[in-house]
Amino acid sequence: MRLSVRLMLAMTALVLCTVAALGLLSYANIGHAMVPAGIQRLADQTKARIGGIDALLSTVRNETLAARTFPSHQRIQRAQASGGIDPQDGLAEESARRTLAEIYAGQMTAKPGILRYRYIGVADGGRELVRVDRNTSDRSPRIVSAAELRRLGHEEFFRRGIALAEREVEMTWTRGDPADATTAAPVVIFATPVRTAANEPFGLIVLEVDMRPTFERIRAALSEDTRSYIVDGDGPYLANLREGRIVPTYAAGRWQDDFPALAAALGNKNGAAAVLTAPDGLRVAAVIGLVRFPNGMRAGVIETIAFDTIMAPAKALQSASLIVALVAGLVAVLVSVLLSRSLARPVVQLTAAVEQFAHTGQIAVPRGLSGETLRLATAFEHMTSEIDSATEALRAKSEQLDKIIASMADAVAVIDGNGNRVFANPRCLALFGEAAEIGSDQWSSKYKRFKADGVTPMPDDDSPSSRARRGESFDNVDLGIRQGDDAPLIQLVASARPIENPDGSFGGAVIVYRDITALKEAERQLRQAQKMQAIGQLTGGVAHDLNNILTVLTGGIEILTEGVSDRPALKEVALMVDQAVARASDLTNGLLSFARKQPLQPRSIDVNALMEETARLLRSTFSGTIEIDFRPAPGLWPALADPSQLSSALLNLAINARDAMPGGGRLLLETANVNLDKVYAEQHDEVTPGCYVVLVITDTGTGIPASIRDRVFEPFFTTKAVGEGTGLGLSMVYGFVKQSGGHIEIHSQEGTGTAIRLYLPSASAQGSAATVPAPAAQGGREAILVVEDDVLVRSYVLTDLAALGYTTHAAASAAQAMAMVYDEIEFDLLFTDVMLGGAINGAQLADELRKYRPHLKVLFTSGYGDRVLEQQSVGAQGAPLLEKPYRRADLARMLRLALDGPVGRNSRS
Ligand SMILES: Nc1ncnc2c1ncn2[C@@H]1O[C@H](COP(=O)(O)OP(=O)(O)OP(=O)(O)O)[C@@H](O)[C@H]1O
Ligand SMILES: [Mg+2]
């Protein structure tokens, strides 16, 4: 509701309330004054009426007493006492009676209210002596004849009257004589005794007075609203004047029963008033006035007046007040409309300005304001601009905070005091999902939690969310979570801080989770790589020395075998030794292969064709329970690798797969082109981004348990029984792939199978190296400078070279060789070990000597096929390389290749 309307209503209501209150108050006051006044008026009337009755009856009473003095009473008495004749005047009783009757009649003529006049004697059962009544047509007095006189000794009034003392009067209400039509009216009987000289009762003077005229006068004077009853003080009604029932309602009921409140108020008094409900249900004010006569008779007048009549003036005032209130109300409405408008206008303007501010953020002080409203508006304007700048600062700060938290790499969750999540940043949602309610039961059941090792289950109570809910503060608690048994393990570190409410109670907590899965994986890979490198170095060193020994053994055995060719038993032994050496040589090759130090001859290979061939070979050798499937990728790039080594790697993997499927299964060979990007390269050790050809060998075998997955590449690690596996298969594959610049991955699940992926660099980018057919082994006459630090090998080589017809010079180190060259010895070819003890290696020696002999021909030999060295030094020079251990035929062939070929031509054995 609008302010002006409210003001208007309030003012109008105020005025109306005031007028109404005043009206009510004056009505009540006037009412209070009216009632007593009305009652008083009524009481005064009543008093006057009862006064009239009293006056009449008292007069008649006095007259009754006065009648005793009539001499005829004594004359009758005397006549009776003297036998019928009064001794004093000598007249008969009869005469005295007549005289008395005439006196009575005279009295009655003078007083029309007297209905009957009698003198009743005690003698003869209370026989009337004289009676005058009005039993005539004109109601004139009539003296009743002697014959009509009656005995009345039994009458109540007679018995009571005759018992009275001298000068006492008995008064009684009566209805008159029903037998006498003239007396059928409310009547008062007056009786007083006449006594003899001896104070014996002789007779009773009896007067009967008709009260009707008196009552009639009262009735005539009654006002419209007044009712009037004449009552016997003892109870019965005598007349109901309002209804005109002047003729007795006598014995029709007792007034005390009809007006009990009045009777109670009266008590022993002569007058009383009360407000009560009349027998007819009307609310009235009632007054009683009473008069008592000496012998006990009481006469009463009860007058009632309707309460409404008394209150009429107050009612009139009430109506007047109503009209005044109405007029006042109207005036109030008018005034309040004007007033409220002028009062509300500034407030309305201010309100509009504030509303405008709420919608547009702009505020303008309304024109036309003055006083407090102007000050208020100006203050408000000032306040809004302050709030604006404060809000803006807050908003900027909160936005900045939001951005910081949203862009955090860590997951941030905030829980409230009940453990419900109240905030989660995007990283948190990404990690735990939208639906995850941290701290809730749903959250607890959604994840399995593990301790730092990723295997030991973490009790619910120890979880970071539970601890945070208990208000604990902690840092860097390691845990792993898994959403299901097959889901990957996510490794996290969690920290939490409780948040306190202003009253110091626990209000929630901030939990920060950092995903360290990648970090842990990188750590694992690094450890693995370091381990493999360490093993590789160890293995490489051992294999190198073994190779030198084996070279000597191989050559020595050949010479021995030739030497004992005529002694079969010894030749047999020599052959056995030769075989053993050959096996040792294989083993050393395996080790070298793992140590990535095996001499490789990489070239561009059609991997699909090679795989096809392998698959065919496997189908013919593996038992029928293993199904072999090959799925070549169309348009496969050529790969750069050593084909024979790749074949043996594939065979190794296939054999492993077969061994893992003793009950049969499926072996799937696949190829594909992939591009390993930078991200992948960064995540995996020793991987350079680029194009790769992938070979996937999948089996449905037992799978590799996670616990040994990191160890399968280690040389001599095997789970197979003694004699069934050496544990070199995967090591060789690993070394070969790594040495070829590739990469290997194992995916395995226990009970399901294993997939091994070999990534070989694509040859398309690097160009292919063609293989050179091996020339036939033959000797020669040229001079050879042999540089070999191992004395056993050197002497063996020199023997072999001599056997092939060459002239030889020998040096034990690069320094010694250079000294010989400076001395200008004659030679056609430098045959040098790549790895020489000392500061200068074989390749550097060759470089040095070429300064003097630019066309120097070189053949390198190495048992330490260091890939780096090979590529950087030997490979760069383009000279052929002879791998240790070698047989004389290999030596002869490579020498001829080096001597006959152009300088810088590259080849390998
Ligand atoms: N496809 C595979 N399925 C199940 N386990 C495998 C598989 N390939 C390798 N392994 C496990 O890796 C171990 C090492 O394999 P590796 O080829 O290096 O050695 P080996 O097969 O035991 O012996 P070798 O190959 O020298 O005869 C095996 O003993 C075997 O436990
Ligand atoms: Mg194997």
UniProtKB/TrEMBL annotation:
It catalyses: ATP + protein L-histidine = ADP + protein N-phospho-L-histidine. GO terms for cellular component: plasma membrane. The keyword Transmembrane applies. It is found in: Cell membrane. It comes from Rhodopseudomonas palustris. Residues 541-764 form the Histidine kinase domain. It is a multi-pass membrane protein. Its EC number is 2.7.13.3. Residues 475-528 form the PAC domain. SMART domains: HATPase_c, HisKA, REC. The lineage of its organism: Bacteria, Pseudomonadati, Pseudomonadota, Alphaproteobacteria, Hyphomicrobiales. Signal peptide: none annotated. One of its GO terms (molecular function) is ATP binding. Residues 341-392 form the HAMP domain. This is histidine kinase. InterPro entries: CheY-like_superfamily, HAMP_dom, HATPase_C_sf, HATPase_dom, His_kinase_dom, HisK_dim/P_dom, HisK_dim/P_sf, PAS-assoc_C.
